[in-house]
Amino acid sequence: MSNLWAPISLGFFSDRKEKKLPPLVDVDLSPQFWNIKPGEKLSSTVAVNPLGMNKTNVLLSARESSGAEIPEGISIGFDPSGGLPPFTSKMSIVTSPELRPQTYSFLVVAKSGITESEKTCVLVVQRESAKETKVQEKSYSEPILPAPPMIAGKVPLYPNAFRRSVNEKEKIVVYSISDSPEDAVSFYQVQMKRLGWKSKSETDEMPFEFIFTKDDSEVRIEISGKDPTLISIKL
């Protein structure tokens, strides 16, 4: 007689637990990329919007892209720290005068119930003078050429670019150049048109932001800072 009381596999239930639930809100930042010197502070606007009929309170926080705590020397706060979407919050970033000049990547996290929505931010901490900054850039940056696969053949890179960060998940490429932001603006206005992209929207002051469309694709390009100029490309 067969054993009717054989153990039932719990694999089905464990698989369900491991699945990541879809986010209940969308989080966006403006701006999302910054140049800053040690000891300076800045702010950004965080916009939280519901997805569907979500009516759950949202709490905002920040952590390193690796999942670790924000490094010592960088303080990040939100005002308000949460709310019922849709709402906006002012994110303040304060750096210590002793903060090491380098590129820091972190996530702004909007937690709603047991789900989270994330947005990547990049903070480029520079030395005090432009001359020192360029020396530092050469010491820790590497030429970005050839272009990362996700933008190769789609979006051109400014000549003599230096890699900052490439986020495959968020489809964001950040790099820097020694030329002025205005030079970068002229370059992308001409080159994107040459490649068949149409301008959907653009700003005429720092940080410069462009949205280009072609067929069913959209590209956002943000240009900010000086010595070096920081350029981000989001697909």
Topology:
Blueprint: H1 11-18, E1 25-30, E2 33-36, E3 41-50, E4 58-64, E5 74-79, E6 82-83, E7 87-95, E8 103-112, E9 115-125, H2 130-140, E10 162-167, E11 172-177, H3 181-194, E12 198-202, E13 208-214, E14 217-224, E15 229-234
Parallel strand pairs: 2-9
Antiparallel strand pairs: 1-3, 3-7, 4-6, 4-8, 5-7, 8-9, 10-11, 11-15, 12-13, 13-14, 14-15
Q: Would you give an account of this structure?
A:
- With 235 residues, this protein is mainly β.
- It folds into two domains: 20-125, Immunoglobulin-like (Sandwich); 128-235, 2-Layer Sandwich (TATA-Binding Protein).
- The protein is 14% helix and 44% strand.
- It is built from three helices and 15 strands.
- The strands form three sheets. A six-stranded antiparallel sheet has the order 10-11-15-14-13-12, with helices on one face. Strands 2-9-8-4-6 form a five-stranded mixed sheet, with no helix packed on it.
- A hairpin with a 2-residue loop joins strand 13 and strand 14.
- The longest helix is centred in the last third of the chain and has 14 residues, at 181-194.
- It is globular.
- It starts with 10 loop residues before the first helix and ends with a strand.
